[in-house]
Design goal:
With 303 residues, the protein is of the alpha/beta class. It has a domain of 203 residues: 3-Layer(aba) Sandwich (Rossmann fold). 41% of the residues lie in helices and 19% in strands. It has 10 helices and 9 strands. The strands form 2 sheets. The protein has a 7-stranded mixed β-sheet with strand order 3-2-1-4-5-9-6. Strands 7-8 form a two-stranded antiparallel ribbon. The two termini are 21 Å apart. The chain binds S-adenosylmethionine.
Length: 303
């Protein structure tokens, strides 16, 4: 049976609701997450060549990364704009920015930033994104739109996830919940964490969107958890509310000990010598240079 075609408006509405719900839990687990994720931020800043005075756009910034790190790097002569579909995530990002005067946050769908009034073509030196681009419905149109926002020769540097089996930090919890709730596997081609996990295809779509000098490298993110408790708390914090509600409906309580116990047990094989858990996970870090003659135009497109 063929899957029903995606309605982008429904996808966006669901994404907004999902991430608005995750925001506060993510903030509570931010330190645990950034212990590993900060290494990817460092790699993206290096790949993008971010330096003082640069104009930087961070797409799907969530709680403000890598926008805040970029803002510290570009200094007072530079400026950074972080965009995201979730107002709740952005509210936390603004709070985290504190006194930083060179960073702003604004709501925006990553697939139509080039249509936002005030975002002129060619107005950024670097576009960054850490684990956000995979939520696009139309990858080719997304990359064309980002190419158009970059100045000629500007750089897109972004991280997406590798395939699920190489990303236990994300896929382990989902697979336990999926089994316990008897969820069908997500239909192929859906926007989601693993939709850009094929490096060859990613490079081809980037080149097709007009980018040059495209590279896609594997980066092992050293996710570590001090204890099983910390791992389970983190997994729960970043699980969509809709799934947690289903745990409650099916097992009588959202705190169902058997479910969260199974999440803990599944990570046992990642136990490290110091008694903690080590779940190294593979990100794909891409770098692509915007064409000097402007991006190929034309909306909409196929993936
Ligand atoms: C995994 S989080 C990554 C957040 C942040 N960049 C980080 O690395 O911590 C994914 C983010 O993508 C955002 N997102 C999902 N779909 C989006 C869309 N269509 N447009 C803009 N942001 C989107 C979510 O709201 C969420 O903040």
């Amino acid at each position: 049976m063929q899957a029903a075609p995606l309605d982008p408006r429904t996808v966006k509405r669901e994404q907004r609701t999902t991430w608005d719900g995750i925001g506060p839990g993510w903030e509570a687990s931010l330190e645990t997450f950034e212990r590993g994720a900060a290494a990817v931020t460092g790699r993206l800043l290096a790949l993008g060549g971010v330096r003082r005075g640069h104009r930087v756009l961070d797409v799907a910034t969530g709680l403000g990364e890598p926008a805040l790190a970029a803002a510290r790097m570009v200094g007072p002569a530079g400026r950074v704009l972080g965009t995201d579909i979730s107002p709740a995530m952005l509210e936390i990002a603004r709070r985290r920015a504190g006194e930083l005067g060179n960073v702003k946050f604004a709501a925006g769908d990553l697939e139509s930033l080039d249509l936002e009034p005030g975002l002129a073509p060619g107005s950024f030196d670097v576009v960054l994104s850490r684990w956000g681009l995979m939520f696009a419905v139309d990858h080719a149109a997304l990359f064309r739109s980002l190419a158009g926002l970059l100045a000629p020769g500007g750089v897109l540097a972004a991280a997406v996830w590798g395939p699920p089996q190489a990303v236990p930090m994300m896929s382990l919890g989902y697979s336990v919940l999926g089994e316990r709730l008897e969820l069908p596997p997500p239909p192929a081609g859906q926007p989601g964490p693993f939709s850009m996990s094929d490096p060859g295809r990613l490079a081809r779509v980037l080149a097709g969107a007009g980018f040059t000098g495209v590279s896609v490298e594997e980066f092992t993110v050293p996710f570590r958890f001090g204890s099983t408790r910390e791992w389970v708390d983190f997994t729960r914090a970043v699980t969509p509310r809709a799934l947690i509600r289903r745990v409650g409906e099916r097992f009588g309580s959202e705190d169902d000990p058997a479910t969260w116990g199974a999440v803990g047990t599944a990570a046992e094989r990642f136990r490290s010598a110091d008694g903690g858990l080590s779940l190294p996970s593979t990100a794909l870090c891409l770098r692509a240079v915007a064409p000097s003659g402007g991006a190929p135009s034309g909306r909409p497109s196929s993936r």
